[in-house]
Amino acid sequence: MSTLDPASRPTPTGESPLALTRRARRTYRVLHDTYPYAIAELDFTTPLELLVATVLSAQTTDVGVNKVTPALFARYPDAAAYAAADRTELEELIRPTGFYRAKTDALIKLGTALVERYDGQVPGRLKDLVTLPGVGRKTANVVLGNAFGVPGITVDTHFGRLARRLGWTAEDDPVKVEHEVGALIPRKDWTMLSHVLIYHGRRLCHARKPACGVCPVATLCPAYGEGETDPAKARRLAKFELAPGAPWPQRLGEAPSGLAARWAEEGV
Ligand code: SF4
User: Fold this and answer.
1) Does residue 211 line the site of ligand 1, with CB under 6 A?
2) 3-class SS at 123?
3) At which of 100, 116, 147 does a domain end?
4) Residue 120 is part of a domain; what is its CATH number?
5) What pLDDT, in 10s, does the model give residues 158-195?
6) Which of 10, 49, 225, 256 has an alpha carbon within 20 to 30 A of 70's alpha carbon?
7) Which domain holds residue 233?
8) Are the CB atoms for 42 and 57 separated by under 8 Å?
9) How far apart are CA 87 and CA 62, in angstroms?
10) Are both 143 and 215 inside the same structural domain?
11) 238 C-alpha to ligand 1 centroid (Å)
12) Does the C-beta of 202 come closer than 6 Å to ligand 1?
């Protein structure tokens, strides 16, 4: 990824490039402290499984994908199995994720391309990954960051929205967002940055009603006030995709968060 020099471009908020960089890094640190356990929410054990799960995650939730992948991965253990898949059987297995005909098509083509061009292995380079059928830059960065340990920024709908609300970019185009944010945050942090922004977007900074009143980065966010600022009302807006229905903060599971602790202290 090319990184634009932050010092050479005007900032969306009018603050100096240095101030923007400092604020972005501070925001990242707070979000990292809030969601230190953030990981890719798709279940996988190999690069191929993550690639397949990411293809399936289009237009649905990671929780929904995780429900179908155990049986899918058991039935199709390698790229050759997808290449030779019986279409009807594959469709039935992935049907709950929606758009199952198109996704079946994508998985069979993906398996075929991996067998024909990469000896059945998932390549570990962006320029190779994006040549695979159904694999765009977002999917490629998910796979690179999480299965290969290569830092990557994953600009999904949450990431783009938050980067704009936080005033890190004014761009809508995901590639431009990736480049502008990549210039603000050190490369080594790109994968974790993607996780924590996506976590925050799913849990508190929602598209329609962000829970600003309980947001850990409220003092660093130019969009504070776009959502509910009353803490008690804002807390009711918090959502957790991993365990729907469970009460906050138990949903955070084994990993206690600074945010939950703060809320407990404040009696929110
Ligand atoms: S203050 Fe509001 S808009 Fe800004 S990041 Fe927090 S929830 Fe989102």
Assistant:
1) yes
2) coil
3) 147
4) 1.10.340.30
5) 999 999 999 999 999 999 999 999 999 999 999 999 99
6) 256
7) 208-266
8) yes
9) 23
10) no
11) 12
12) no
